Amino acid sequence: MGTGKTSTARAIARTLGVPWVDLDAAIVREEGLSVTDIFEQRGERAFRNAEHRALKAVVAGAGAVVALGGGAVCFERNRALLRGTGPVVLLTAPADVILPRIGRSTGRPLLAGDDAPARVRALLVRRMRDYRRYRLRVDTTELTPAGAAEAVLQAVDHAGRQSDAARARDMAARRGGTCR
């Protein structure tokens, strides 16, 4: 929701030379309706079911950079699918940055109606518990999509080095040695 997920995923994929998928676009293709129309005609539950099916298909396919919708990680069945994939990096920004980015977008059904600022803040608060599950985060407040892509790749690289060091410490400990 206004953090730059789609443009950042595109930039990461371009940098890595791999495909990328916008999950909302995959849902629209599969369902034959816009996200807004799915919400209006079928409800949020139907959208979340379509989102899960689309994520399942993406996870089963060839490796790609995936731009998830902001609510995708708020559901255990989606988190379970994501556990078997590559790193999940949350892009963040405060509400006062998100609001100008999304403007008066009509493609965001959870923000439809009066008082979009209050809706954005409430949605961020509601999702925060689930967002905290992911340790890799990039604040996109001051970043262009290319800058956000670079920050994501650095975060993933750094996390990988930390994982390698932790594995080395574990192996050394099992062998009775130490590793610094």
Q: What is this entry, summarized?
A:
The chain has 8 helices and 4 strands.
Question: If you had to describe this structure to a student in words, what would you say it looks like?
Answer:
With 180 residues, the chain is mainly α. The protein has a two-stranded parallel ribbon. A two-stranded parallel ribbon has the order 3-4. The chain is built from eight helices and four strands, in the order αβαααβαβααβα. α2 (23-31) packs across α4 and α4 runs parallel beside α5.
Q: How are the SSEs placed, and which strands pair?
A:
Layout: H1 5-16, E1 20-22, H2 23-31, H3 35-42, H4 44-60, E2 65-67, H5 76-83, E3 90-92, H6 95-102, H7 116-131, E4 137-139, H8 145-174
Parallel strand pairs: 1-2, 3-4
Helix pairs in contact: 1-8, 2-4, 3-4, 4-5, 6-7
What is the alpha-carbon Rg in Å? 18 Å
Mean pLDDT: 86
Strand line-up across the major sheet: 1-2
Unreliable parts: none
What is the approximate shape?
globular
> Treating each run of at least 4 consecutive H or I residues as one helix, how many helices?
8
Query: Could you tell me the number of beta strands?
Result: 4
Binned strand content:
5-15%
- Helix/strand-derived category reads mainly alpha
Biggest sheet architecture: 2 strands, parallel
Helix-strand pattern, N to C? HEHHHEHEHHEH
The amount of helix comes to 55-70%
Q: What is the end-to-end distance?
A: 41 Å
